[in-house]
Amino acid sequence: MSQRASLERRKFFADPLMVTVILLLVVFLALFILYPLGMLMADSVYSPSSYTVYTVRETPEEVQAFFEIQGEQVRQLSISHRPVTEVPSVEGLSVIEELGVTASTTYMAGVLHEGLSDTAVAVYQKDKGLLSLQSFPHIFGDYTFRRAFTNTLWLGLITGLGSTLLGLLFAYVDTYVRVRNRVLKKLFDIVSMLPVVSPPFVLSLSMILLFGKSGLITRKILGIYDSDVYGLSGIAIVQIMTFFPVCYLMLKGLLKNIDPSMEEASRDMGASRWTVFRTVTLPLMLPGLGNAFLVTFIESVADFANPMLIGGSYDTLATTIYLRITGGTYDTQGAAAMAVVLLSLTVFLFLVQKYYLEAKTAATLTGKASRMRMPITEKSVTRPLTILCFMVSVFVILMYVAIPFGSLFKLWGRDYSLSFRWYEALIKQDGFKAFKDSFVLSLIASPITALLSMIISYLVVKKRFVGRGFIEFVSILAMAVPGTVLGVGYIRGFANGVFRTGFLQGIYGTGAILVIVFVVRSLPVGTRSGISALRQIHPSIEESAYDLGAGSGKVFMSVTLPLIKDSFFSGLVTTFVRSITAISAIILLVTPRYLLITTRINEFAEKGSYGIACAYATILIIIVYASILLMNLFIKYFGTSRQVREANANVG
Amino acid sequence: MSAKKGIKLEHISKIYEDPKTKKPFYAVKDVSIDIAPGAFVTLLGPSGCGKTTTLRMIAGFESPDEGEIYLGGEAINALTPNKRDTAMVFQSYALFPHYNVFDNVAYGLKLRKLSKDEIHKKVMDILDLVEMGGMESRMTNQLSGGQQQRVALARALVVEPGVLLFDEPLSNLDAKLRVTMRTEIRRIQQKLGITAVYVTHDQSEAMSLSDDIIIMNKGVIAQMGTPENIYYHPDSEFVADFIGEANFLPAQVKSTDNGVSAVKIHSHEVQVNNPSGIKPGTDCQLLLRPEAGVIGPKGDLPCKVTLSVFMGAYQYYQVMVGDTLVKINDNCPINKHVFKAGDEAFLSFGADCVHLLTKENLSSV
Questions:
Q1: Within this chain, do residues A142 and A113 fall inside the same structural domain, yes or no?
Q2: A391 in a domain, yes or no?
Q3: CATH code for the domain of A253
């Protein structure tokens, strides 16, 4: 080892606090992100043990009957009838045939052994374990899976395209087109931001209320009695409305970076507005559009709540996985294999997006606009675009307004008189408990996530150590993991303890695991914001504290954290909001001990009790927007971003 | 201040990897320095010469690949920056933007767990010393660049470090303020008698501040010595060129008598001091500073004027001596005959105003 390496190592270990923190982080990330996903991978290619059953009974049916007499379910053992090729002599038994039994749990092995002691059924363990890819051909041969897979891709494609186009429209109008009417401009602003923090279900619920069989618009106004919102078109509309603001924000940033002189040069040489857009603006935006498309594609594919509620018979991978586990079959291995397929899809797209398209976007649009852009004023351009935006805006506003009204109308579709009966019903049916549980769990998760993501960002940006790459990669990768996949991973990983040893089995089914899921789900968002905030801070500010005698813990608490408290606080609120509106992973892990707002909305909406669902959703919307308002106020009055900016101006 | 300490670097090397070629190279190579307690030493060199890396190794932010660093006789290689008795003043000031002036200066004292009264007294005293008294409750963004650098200096001084480190502290200030601040820094350092290591690429800063200058180039020490010594007796063409301006005339030593040699330049003989005793017959370069030469109607070396510009304080000439271009600043032109381009003239200089460099000196760095 070189002198430098040994010195760096000694300096590193001279800081026990940092070493401990790094160690704990690595364990946390490995245990709660990598391990469950790893278990899914292992499950889908590995059959833990396979048994050969020697039996006196004639047929597999008889074996099965025998176990059923014992009061055990043998359903999940796929028993295949095999001809006898080689019969080992088993004392005291007249062996008639060999049955290959693949059991997926040690529990079943125990049952089989019990069977041996009682009766004349002999069981031998053939292999310790079996590596095979058999579950993949198995699920690929499965019709429901194949349909769910193509459904998911179609939905992702439509949602991705739709959101990108709608996002581009709003971004283009915002940066290129003169909208005279102040109110209209403000309206577009609000509408393009509103759904960013909208709880799941909300748009699906209002879609059903407005356009469903007894929908306000379809039935009451248009008189259509057999309107069907369930299915592809319903999910796609709802998802586009939910995700287009993400594209809007991404594309707006890019459009602002385009130097107007390029477009003016093209104009000057005789191009029409449309030709300019087609030959200059659009080609420059292409990687950015691809980026926006992939981001929404991933979001759409990972989405659980909307397909669940409004999908009808249009099952996607996320819902199919959920049904595999909660439905009668409890086919966790099949679900695991599907989860691996879904995970591979999102991770692959995520890697393409992150490492290829993002770099390409940065390469084409690096420059800053040299000056202000003259907005387009021609009526032939502004009119149609403004009208289009206005129609979308009205639609989105309508969707949000429908929810509180849904909770206040006596019976949607029949009796449109106002009453508080749904709120009364909500309170009567454990409403307080649901709010308390959701609140408490989210409130526990918030500070943990915010602090953790700030620590991770600090280590990743400011420190050099072995494992830094691991910490950064895993905490950002978690962004690409669909909630449903994480849920299945936790079931497979923790239901019988870590590596089925029983270790940590205690947390399964408790509030602790729900909090951990909240933390893991919000960690990438907080970390990303922390990293970009920390990159704004000149390294010498921390170095000077270090040099004056502060250890790394002291530097973090007295210098780093105060300087990124905006990011910390927004991490706090974002985690709270994301947790209180979370559904996809939670719904697989929640036990009757905890009632959560989102699972309650799901329950009531599935039962068709839209009134109570709306009441829950209305309160949830109020909570979410109040939290965000609070955050903005805090940052406005106590924020540090101004100080940091000015400190950086000195650095030059 | 009681705790001033000496610093010793023994055969320090630092290897970096070239980001493009992935090949390792020496950013700092076999650097040995011995700095006495209370001395003000400057590391001077072009960007990329390893001066900042050396400073950061003393502070502990970087670890040397070879060699040992001693602070006050104690080996400190394995100590982290917070355990070293050093305090650094940064180029970017690095003030804590969320603290006011007082809290910035008090930061190091609080870490040392001093009593409130003690901290208050020390901070106020040091702020007076850097002439920032009365500004202690300002936020750092309400200060000018010069004031911020005074606060940064106070913050480093107040912890009474064994060694004060400066990493190009004045390069973000405008030219005028830079001159004021360097006088201030020297005044305070002398008053406190503190040991200081100062990194800069500005030679006038180095000249005006230092007891000793260490010139670095490509990771190695090119020369160390007092400012006068380095200016008048550079060891190499690099040092001669880097400090001040220099003309080089090809010369051959003919004979030496009592430390003065007769050297031949373009078939003319001149008398030159030869303190290092370069042997007759050796080819060398004669270093002539522009201000050491005079252009006149009579003199040592005939030359042809190719450019003549009035600069106020001096007349700037470019003349050809044989086939060598020489630049001369002839002072106080008002009293002299001024030559025009195309004129024939003579270049002269005092025997003690020039310096001989042998070929080995030229190739050594």
A1: no
A2: no
A3: 1.10.3720.10
- Would residue A393 count as lying in a domain? no
A645 part of contact set with chain B, CB < 8 Å: no
Q: Which two tokens stand for residue B187?
A: 């005044």
Angstrom distance (rounded) from CA A239 to CA A203: 8
Question: Is residue B22, in this structure, part of any structural domain at all?
Answer: yes
DSSP at A183: H
- Helices A431-462, A597-607: axis angle to 10 degrees equals 130
Q: Same domain, yes or no, for B214 and B167?
A: yes
**CATH number of the structural domain spanning residue B226:** 3.40.50.300
Q: Domain boundary residue among B204, B239, B274?
A: B239
Q: Does residue A537 contact residue A563 with C-beta atoms inside 8 Å?
A: yes
- What are the two backbone dihedrals, phi and then psi, of residue A180, each rounded to the nearest 5 degrees? -65, -45
Residue of A nearest to B57 (CA): A4
With a cut of 0.90, is the ipTM above it?
A: no
* Per-residue model confidence as pLDDT tens digits over A281-304: 888 888 889 989 999 999 999 999
The verdict on a CB contact (< 8 Å) between A547 and B86 is yes
The DSSP H or E segment spanning A278 is none
pTM for the whole structure: 0.79
pLDDT for B271-301, tens place per residue? Answer: 888 887 788 888 888 999 998 888 999 888 9
Cβ <8 Å between A541 and B59: no
Dihedral angle of Cα B226, B228, B232, B236, to the nearest 10 degrees: 30
Q: What is the CATH number of the domain that holds A115?
A: 3.30.70
Residue B2 resides in a domain: no
Domain count, chain B: 2
Query: What is the spatial distance between Cα B243 and Cα B210, in angstroms, rounded to a whole number?
Result: 14
Looking at the structure, tell me whether residues A144 and A207 fall in a common domain: yes
> Which domain covers residue B265, as residue numbers?
245-364
Q: Are A74 and A18 contacting, i.e. CB atoms less than 8 angstroms apart? A: no
**In this structure, are residues A316 and A147 in contact, taking their beta carbons and an 8 Å threshold?**
no
pLDDT tens profile A130-154: 555 666 666 777 788 888 999 999 9
Q: Which three-class secondary structure string do you get for B163-199?
A: EEEEECCCCCCCHHHHHHHHHHHHHHHHHHCCEEEEE
Shared domain for B163 and B232, answered yes or no, is yes
Residue A537 has pLDDT above 90, yes or no: no
For B154-165, letters b (16+ CB in 10 Å) and e give bbbbbbbbbbbb
Same-domain status, A63 and A166 = no
**B81 to chain A, minimum CA–CA distance in Å?**
5
CATH code for the domain of B333: 2.40.50.140
| Chain B residue with minimum CA distance to A551 | B82
Beta-bridge partners for A123: A53
Answer whether B140 sits within 8 Å of A647, measured CB to CB. yes
| Domains contained in chain A, number | 3
Cβ of A652 within 8 Å of Cβ of B172? The answer is yes
Rounded to whole angstroms, how far apart are CA atoms A644 and A533? 10
| Residues B206 and B271 both lie in one domain | no
d(CA A180, CA B155): 54
Co-location of B226 and B335 in the same domain: no
Q: Which of B192, B212, B239 is the last residue of a domain?
A: B239
Cα separation, B343 vs A287, whole angstroms? 66
Cβ-contact A278, A263 below 8 angstroms:
no
Let me know whether A215 and A307 are in one domain: yes
**Least confident range of A29-38, A55-64, B19-28:** A55-64
Domain span at residue A506 reads 3-43+426-651
Q: When comparing pLDDT for A614 and A197, which is higher?
A: A614
Chain A residue with the nearest C-alpha to that of B142: A646
**Which chain B residues touch A15 with a CB distance below 8 Å?**
80
- Closest listed residue to residue A39, CA positions, set A476, A507, A514, A500: A500
Distance between B63 CA and the closest CA of chain A, angstroms: 5
What Rg value do the Cα atoms of chain A yield, rounded?
29
